Amino acid sequence: MPPRKNQKKNAQVAQTPTDELATKALELDKAVQGAMIGIGKINVLQMDNEFTLGKYNNRPQNQMEVNKMVTSFKAHGRQWFKDSNALAIVIQPERLVAGQNLISNWSGPDSLNEVKFKDMHPIILATGQHRIAALRKMAIALVNEEESPESRITCIEEFNNPTEEQVEEHEEIKKCLSVVKGELDAMGFWGIMIYNQDVIEAGKGELASHLSRNQSLHVYPETAEEKLVSRLQDCYDAYLQDGNAGVMKILQAEDDRLTDQKDSKLTKIWKNPRLVKTLMGDILPLGDHYRRHRELSVCWLVQAMNVTMVMYIMYIQKSTTLLRKFASKDDFPSYREVSAVIAKRASSAEARNQVKEWNCMTVEADEGDIKIFVTHMDSINDIAEKCFESCTRPLGSEDQDYFSALDNYRNDVVVLLHDGLLKKATSASEKKWLDSVITRVSAWLTRTQTIPYLLMTGTIMDHVWAELESVKEGYTELSRWFEPLLDTIKVHASHTHVIDDHTEALFHSIERERGMDVTYAVRKVWQTLFEACGSSVLKLHNNMSAII
Questions:
Q1: How far apart are alpha carbons 423 and 7 in whole angstroms?
Q2: pLDDT at 239 over 90
């Protein structure tokens, strides 16, 4: 054993351990700080601009969190002027009114200047959806509180000879109402930090994700849905860069990783490339309306993978393709011309044929930017709920109630898009394009020889899924009609894909066949099966299966 002095001389110097995660977070904090344009305040209850939620973080709104926030506001005040509670706004700098002072401090409510915007386009909110929801809930409560006193004031003012007590009551109520109105006017203000959208969204989106985590307020664990959406975004980026090969590479990596972690639910999703590509390319780009729907719920997706899932997936693909066709910039007749022809369709076969020809033009058009519909999907869905709430038969039924509902639906959607798109056009070329978008939608939703597909929103998707599920036993039987075709095509299934049903096997086999127009063949077979959804054959078989 060496002498003690040699031991001390040769002793290893202790090394300070490094926390790589903390270091990375610090780097991201600095980068986010560098993207800041300034600070200020906005009145979120009186703004003309809508907020785009969930672009960087797919966490759905939690009503329990909203209620906790309301309780906190009532107990401790809103404290909207503190930097730790500020909303994170992500916007392009040129959308801000020039010359305004965005260099303030957080010393109090009066130290923050109200931020002004040039346009009424949606603004990305990176954090703060629960705070805004809590404010809106409190505002609704105040409005309801205001209604009853206003009714009493109106009642007193209608008296010809009010008593002294009534006059005093009138004055007291007016004072109370002025307090309530003052609270309403002041309630919407909230401090904001403004970030440069071009900088935040640069690269692979690390800054956007970091900013949206809201870590200074609460550290949320990543939910299964957030994991799903995050990987779907990775898939979409890979698709833009390397096409399907890039997507399959990520799917294989996710399959290996999740198998090791024994995450069976996500594993099952990643093993279905058709589903992943649909969620990635068709559902994810459509924004907040679909983010709240069950198609991005991991539990629902896993449970729903049965006979009808492939039919539903291909319905989504067709519907989103149709939305892109509506947004085409190809030449199309004006709304005035098309409306004049539509008005004659009931009595003129020539007019019906002309509308049908225009719809063929839409189907064959180049695809446009689907994002023009994103901010209007909630409103279109409300129209669908209102127009078809009394229709008990399947969508597309040939009866007068459905035809009347369809006409009302078309008219309301056209008015909505006219007000939401055309009136906001800023140039002659944009106005012409948006006019063609509205015209295509109007022509498509006009009943001619066939009943059109409705615009795909949450309510319509629920109807379609329910109709498919109601006859799934019939679909099992109907898929056997294609067995002669399957006998001539070798059934292929890659090791990354689970064949859940016979119908999926059919489509997968056709797609692997090189001796035919694959896209056309798949589309026609799907259309044959889908349009049989309401047929007597499927319903009869389904009912017989239930009896047996």
A1: 84
A2: no
Question: Which pLDDT belongs to residue 221?
Answer: 54
25 vs 42: CA distance, rounded Å: 29
Q: Is the pLDDT reported for residue 228 higher than 70?
A: yes
Q: Token pair of 242, please? A: 């390397």
Sequence-distant (≥ 6) Cβ neighbours of residue 382 within 8 angstroms: none
Distance separating alpha carbons of residues 158 and 173, to the nearest angstrom: 15
Rounded to an integer, what distance in angstroms lies between the CA atom of residue 343 and that of residue 338? Answer: 9
pTM: 0.61
How much is the pLDDT for 532?
64
54 Ramachandran zone, left/alpha/beta (phi>0; psi -120 to 50): left
Long-range contacts of 70-73 (CB under 8 A, 24+ apart): 70/134, 70/137, 70/138, 73/134, 73/135, 73/138
User: What's the full length of the chain, in residues?
Assistant: 548
C-alpha span between 252 and 257 (Å, rounded): 9
The one-letter amino acid at 31: A
Contact 438, 417 (CB under 8 A): yes
Please report the DSSP string for 276-293 in residue order.
HHHIIIIIGGG-HHHHTS
The whole-number pLDDT of residue 231 equals: 79
CB 211 within 8 A of CB 195: yes
Range 415-423 average pLDDT: 87
Q: Which of 133-142, 388-397, 511-520 has the highest mean pLDDT?
A: 133-142
The alpha-carbon radius of gyration of the chain (Å, integer) is 29
Q: Are strands 87-91 and 189-196 parallel, antiparallel or unpaired?
A: parallel
245 is written with which tokens? 């090969």
Tell me: pLDDT of 123 over 80: yes
> Where does 158-218 have alpha helices with state H?
164-187, 197-200, 206-212
Query: Considering the chain, what percentage of its residues have pLDDT values greater than 90?
Result: 10
Strand, coil or helix: what is 81? coil
